[in-house]
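Sequence in, structure out. First:
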Amino acid sequence: MADSKPHSKLSVQKLFLIGYLIFSFDTNSVYSDESKLSAKQSKTLKETFLYLETLEPKKIKIDKTTYNRHTQFESHFKFPFSGKKISRWIQSRIKKYNYGATGDYVAMYREGEVLLGRGFFTLNRLDRVLVLLHEARHADGKIYSHVICPDDFPYLNTRDWKIHPAGKKGCDSVPDGGYGITASFLFELGAYGYLSQTEAAYRYNSEISRVIRD
């Protein structure tokens, strides 16, 4: 039979300490394997996920007709818009993070690992989220590999004008590839008022321009 005596003050303190340690471990747990990142880089990555998880649905700021016509988030992700769910979606696909040279890219996906370049850590938090979303999509198979952008591709690289997409593997041939899902995410941010309609449209158009349709 369970002891009916009140817990001693020391026992209560021990229980509180154990609960605190469990809670602390859970909320500050490493996102996948960051052992190859510096402490500062790891902190930046955690802050990126924490920011993403604040982006939850609220009252839609645009008219419902426009929203229903253009939203593609749920059809791409198979769940309603939610920063917390997106965070879990990314983390279920990216198992390791590393740091190194990435050439003309800010990040690269390869066999469950994302290689983050120096440029990744200079981006603002929204752009870091977009990069992680994009790279996580590559984990879903070769169908989401990039295709060569047309030689006459007229658009600039929004993050670095010295990088020219034309004639390089920087476009997608499927609507729900890396660029398609980031576009759908940005549309939701504009619809829910996390971005102004001007910024959301600019960013959305930049991403969706990389989806090449026959």
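Second:
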Amino acid sequence: MHELGVVRRTIERADRAAVDALSPFPVATVHEAMGRLGLMRPYIRPVYEGARLCGTAVTVLLQPGDNWMLHVAAEQVREGDVVVAGCTTESEDGFFGELLATSLRARGAQGLVIDGGCRDVDELRAMDFPVFSRAVNAKGTVKATLGSVNVPVVVANALVNPGDVVVADADGVVVVPAARAAEVAAAAAKREAAEEGKRERFRAGELGLDLYGMRGPLAELGLTYVD
């Protein structure tokens, strides 16, 4: 059940070294390394090409059409944080734009992930302030209803706790629980090393059919080649 009207000022962020260790890896690698967990729904997209972020979550629960809690959340942001905002119900209004981005950047924010709308895309691109959102929408919002800051939120079907690690790139957004950050970073590094070996074999012309030992299982299922 959502808590309304609460701002938690003390949260336990993922270990900084673990966040730094995760930051080089693409979302797909992190997702696979974590056992194919933690992905947000694919409708959350970068608002400009090349946007990418990795940081610890300051969570926000918004009310539809109301961005008051984003201003409240700005005060809780520390260097290396990502603001991650869900909504009590679906809303594509333009909760966030260039002015709030300027405020968050001054606090050290790495970017924003929001299950809602965003505007001022050209300005955000010029600032290189990464935003991943449900929609781009010029429609503005009001400041009238209480939500919460730093409570567990569900954002695009993914549970985000304050202090979790959020990684986002052109392929999507993945949430790594704070307690698993170091383990997932190590698994991602191992996975990437293994992929480099496969990449070399593919470059040399080897087929996935042989590299992955697929021919036997395909034959057992009755796959037939006809000339």
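Remark: Residues 16-185 form a domain with the Glucose Oxidase; domain 1 fold (CATH 3.50.30.40).
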